[in-house]
Amino acid sequence: MAGEGRSRWPADGANGQVTQRRTGEDRDGFQVRSGRIGRSVMRKDAEEKVTGRAEYTADVSAWGMLHAALLASPYAHARIVSIDTQRAITMPGVRAVVTGADYPQRTGLPIADRPLLAVDVVRYAGEPVALVVADELYQAEAALRQLDVVYHPLPALTSPREAFAPEAVRLHPDLAAYDVQPGEEVWPVPGTNIATHVRIRKGQPESVWSTCDAVVTCDVSFPQAHHAPMETHCVIASVAPDGCVNLVTATQSPYSVPEAIARTFGFRPSDVRVRTPLVGGAFGGKSSVYLEPLAVAATLAVGGRPVKLRCTREQEMRSMPCHIGLEARIRLGARADGRFVAVEITDWFDGGGYSDRGVIVTRAAAQDCTGPYRIDHVHCDAYCMYTNHPPTTSYRGFGHPEQTLVMERAIDLLAEQLRMDPLELRRRNAVRPGDTTPTQARLMRSSVGDVEGCLTRLRSLLPWDGPPVEDRDGEVIAKGISCFWKTSSTPPDASSGALVYVNEDSTVTLLSGLVEIGQGTKTTLAQMVAEVLGLAVEQVRVVMEVDTAEQPEHWKTVASRGSLLAGNAAVRAARDARAQLAATAAVVFQCRPEDVCISNGYAGCPYTSRRIPIGQLSRGYTFPDGHTVGGFVVGRGSYTIERVTLLDPATGRGVPGPEWTVAAQGVVVAFRPRDYTYRVLRAVTVVDVGRVISPNLAEGQLKGGMSMGLSLGSREGYVYGATGSVDNNQLRVYPIHRYGDQPEYRVAFLETPNADAPWGLRGLGEHGVIGMPAALANALSNALGQPVNSMPMTPELLWRLHTGAEVNDR
Amino acid sequence: MIPFDFEYLPAHTTAEAVAYYVSRAKAGQSPLYCGGATEVVTLGRIGQLETGAVIDIRHIPSAQVLTQRHDQVVAGAGVTLTQIADSVLIAETFPLLAASAREIADRTARNQITLGGNICGQIFYREAVLPLLVCESAVRLAGPNGLRELPMDRVFDQTLRLQPGEFLVQTATDTVLAGAPWVYVKRRKMGSVGYPVVSAAAIRVDRDIRVAVSGVYPFPVRALDLEQALNRRELPLSRRIEAAVSTIRADLVLDDVEAARGYRLFVLRDVLREIVESLDA
User: Fold this and answer.
1) Cα dihedral A678→A682→A687→A692 (10° resolution)
2) Whole-angstrom Cα distance, residue A201 to residue B271?
3) Residue A674: its chain B contacts at CB < 8 A?
4) Selected residue of A796, A798, A800 to mutate for chain B interface (largest B Cβ count, 10 A)
5) Measured between CB atoms, which of B1, B45, B260 is closest to A809?
6) What is the pTM of this model?
7) Euclidean distance between the first and final Cα of chain B, in Å?
8) Interior CA angle at A107 toward A106 and A110, to 5°?
9) pLDDT, tens digit, 9 for 90 and up, residues B121-180
10) What ipTM did this prediction achieve?
11) Which residues of chain A have a CB within 8 Å of the CB of B249?
12) Phi, then psi, of B96 in degrees rounded to 5
């Protein structure tokens, strides 16, 4: 494919329109040819979704399908004295009852630290203890109530700091014996409750604290929270007579499922086939393989018949991995002119009873712990702690909303101490090409984007203007800002493949293993393919459902990596198809392949006015006399992430991701001191996305993320009972943003190209969330006149901070 | 998924409903009267409610009434909260009832939840009863012993004290009280949908304020001693509020995922202040 990036002829040669605009010096010579890039198009899944015809996993039914129901532990920490299944198994319709005794093996990625169903001990309230399979769901649920389980409650570890204490009970005494997925960067500490300990060591903070003119220390904390997708987890599993395992599952990681199932049950990964229809929201909560092994255990118990296992909302909130909680301490020092000198951060993440992806979230928070600022001396210890709370996994932003809240609160406190404008303080320390990250990765213009530019634009767009607090009708109008960056925590071999078929009617079909989770990336991929082939976006069909047996692998639909990984693969596949079409057309036109111009569904060449529909070239070209040249056109493309290296366990030195998307955010709140209530009036994001491919989709992602971040910061969070169970595991008592709660949103894009990505784009799927809790905390701190360092920032929290009332103040 | 079987029995007269109740109770089916059945669904699926028979009273004509007659505003137990919140008649004659109904749950749920269901259900906030408490409405009940009409203060103590087999058919409120100067305040943990930290209905009758609150205790209450303290107009406002709050049984105040006890009392103070500021002539 080398050298075919620049067409010698205008894409739309027929009507003479040529767009010469270049988007930067990217090495593949991406070029805007026809305006399909940078223009809003209708989502490919819009019609089926607005008409209610879209199919999700729970809509799938199979002949002879049975239903499974899960029994969950009511205790956060308990010994299982006995499980009596006798009454349940005789209930009408019941086919099988499965307990931990049936599956002694452990499962879980990257650390295989959990039994399929609890064995001897339960480590969180909501932990799956037994499964009932029955003809009908109501029969399975009725039988659940006939299971007799006797527990002996044990004292629970209900906070990560408590779990860190040397005298704390060990929740996983066999930690040293657990399997760790090869290649994953996770460092458990046997003999403790530490599931991973990530060390970042850059410079020598201890030697420079004395040179600081100002030093601030603060503690930041927040509870675990719910992802709240509309669609709860659902799996349909069966085993075919030939031994192949078939799964239909709502997941972001269909290609991770075979390995997990294979490791747990002893199949070959290639014996496991996974289908993923449209996913009804995920937000990171569907990235881990958690429910699938249970569904496989269920089908194995009934001779491989299809079994559907779907979480209720309550189970989704108690049993499935959630957003990680955090307790953190930060110490940040600066010179009198505001330049940051050193930072020391300790994060104790609330990883829950089983670590799941929480250990990788911990690594991500540590790798980018400083935010987008130049700091030469960095010391960070990030611990993912086992506690008796629900297990944890990725959540939109993957450790970065957490890390950003810690850092950005410290910066505002430092600004106050230095009597310096918070925005100016950030601008002065903004990271630039040539600087290094906490993991000592050297930044280039291509890899980091324009932090200062984001801050400058935020200043006028918010606007950030002078003293942030003013009075109006008894309300305090206050503003807060934050600044952040994010790179992915992608393994160095994260890959994506794509296929482009040219159809006989001159349309094309794109196959990609990327999952449509509501983010719209498959529409963006269609735009990219349309651009390369000079087609209208409507002429590109993209298969929405993923089938691991049919689509080329896409690592995982996570980490804002879809447009980079799948985008590069799709572009390369489209170019490959174009090259194949051009080779055949060149024979017909009797010209050089590079002289062939493919656009609007036709192949043409400057030596003739004749044009051939690309459909007529798609199975080779047949001359009038019957002989055929060329062959069936299958465009192949693939991409593997570049320049990522593993982190050194001792210092963290390494390159965790290929590029950093940077952004600045701000909020304006109206605060009522009388009762501590507030409204968010406006929220602003300025983000350097490299290149906007689809403005409406990009804006939608950013605004959706901002809504999620404001909801998380202002009201969400698990409330635990005295024994560590989640007490608000229903949406009627777990508040989230609803229509009407949203403020005015403003989004602005900067475009500093990323040389590795199609048209210079950078990931943006998670970024709306990341700085919102921090900006809100800064605004409310300004409004209240005292630090707000924990979430959720409810009126009750503000009242408590202001009056000093204790949690159980009577 | 509701994992138990039950009989669904739509009744078309009060007598039919009661007959269903008597026969199903005798058969050991633990029958329940229902309006919109939202609790049968939401509590049934999580094992907090179980029954062998559900008697739907929505189709009984007298439970569907929403009218004004003989100087009374009459509302049937089978009327939905949406119908109350959207009713022009209620907006004109009993705006406090509309205000309380409008703040319960969300629109989709209000389309289904009935006045009777909100007052007689398990979920203990029962905010639709607050206007009826301050207006000393009458309730009309049907049961195995026939129909009876009672004033609210005789039959409501934390819950509507119904005889076995009895159900609420209508509420009737004096037009003058229903039209009295009113204020309704609802404070939540956050946002505009959810259970109350404190909700309060208040009216002014002559010079006196009447208040009923929910969210403070695990039941709605109109507390006469609180009203008395609040109406001591000879005292400065802050003293009146402190005196009113001091009547609260602190040991009974809710302390849960919605709000801690101390915060509920803080909010209650502010709500009472808002009520007095708005109603004190």
Assistant:
1) 130
2) 53
3) 270
4) A796
5) B260
6) 0.95
7) 53
8) 125
9) 999 999 999 999 999 999 999 999 999 999 999 999 999 999 999 999 999 999 999 999
10) 0.96
11) none
12) -65, -40
